[in-house]
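Sequence and structure are no longer studied apart. To make this concrete, we show below a single chain and its fold as tokens.
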Amino acid sequence: MTGHVTFVSAGPGDPDLLTVKAVKALGQADAVLYDDLSSGPILALAKPGADLVGVGKRAGRASPKQDHVSRLLVDYALTGAHVVRLKSGDSGIFGRLEEELTAVRAAGIPCEIIPGVTSASAAAALAGIPLTRRTHAQRVQFITAADTSGKLPPGLNLPALADPKATTVVFMGKRTFPALAAALIAHGLSPDTPALLAEAVSTPEQHLHRSTIAGLAAVLAEDRGPLVGLIIFGALAEGDL
């Protein structure tokens, strides 16, 4: 007997930002395997009696290995259960979705992906800015600033990231942003380029810090703080519409 897996994108943390389809899936699931950032009040939407299993990964903390998470998904589904894999933000953006999809499909288990609100969109909305503007921000680029070891990934397209007419969103970048900012400045991006650090977006602890890439790099070099955050830089990050 084989069940199925639904990959549910939980958005940045506020249950009100879940899609209707995501809420329905949570209410029907026999088991919910959830990330740290998609826990809290969102789990209250799960079906009473559902197994709730934390499988989140956080930098600097003991975390389950990816192979273990994938194995759990398969094992639960092979019992005939409807399994929800609850991922923060949109599961297709730096959420290691592909590895889990591969494992589920290799086991012959039906699956579905429910998209969600990205933390980038939520952060921009919180800051009261768009991510694009025809004359000043003609391109949006999402990058991760941490490889599997937590360091700045090699091979970043620095000329593209230093494009002053792009809006760049940096995921998992608080630790490495000082090094990234130095590289961007070396590739011609003005140190006065507006930058926005958005932390704990859509939660009661949310916080915005507006600066420049040089100023934010200096702040993060001294104190990163405990909150999860992302960084937006480019002309629109200044918030002057």
Observations:
- The chain has two domains: 4-114, 119-238.
- The chain has seven helices and ten strands.
